[in-house]
Amino acid sequence: MKSMTTFRLAVGAVVVATSMTAWSQISETASAPGSSTMAASGSAAPATGRKANRALRRQVYNAIAKNKEISAGNISVIAKDGAVTLSGTVTDASQVGKVAEIAKGVPGVTSVTNKLTVQKPFGGM
């Protein structure tokens, strides 16, 4: 009986010790420099995550939409950790490079992959 009680106490102590170690590691990472609170306060590191990707996507799309010569309705923007991928169609070959340059000019964009193609309007040759 005593050996079983001793065994239970030993297992309980190991579980408590493991829990305390894991808890202290989580606390250290949360308070470490460079955590999400530092990134949100405007440090040089780009923000990551879904929310940041959506915000960057909107910023790039809005920058493209400001240019009246480009129909942004046929352009898709995907952003992931600063890397932007453009796909869809434009009506003129000169717009392919123009859209990429606009996207590169948006703060937070680290690279641009341009998959845009030219689609002539119906009836055009």
From TrEMBL:
Organismal lineage: Bacteria, Pseudomonadati, Pseudomonadota, Betaproteobacteria, Burkholderiales
Keyword hit for Zinc: no
Protein name according to UniProt: Transport-associated protein
Keywords: Signal
Domain BON intervals: 52-120
Pfam families linked to this entry: BON
Range of residues in the leader sequence: 1-24
Skewed-composition ranges (Low complexity): 31-49
Region named Disordered: 31-51
PANTHER family for this protein: BON DOMAIN-CONTAINING PROTEIN (PTHR34606)
Domain of life: Bacteria
Matches recorded under InterPro entries: BON_dom, Lipoprotein_DolP, Transpt-assoc_nodulatn_dom_bac
Organism: Caballeronia terrestris
Keyword Flavoprotein attributed: no
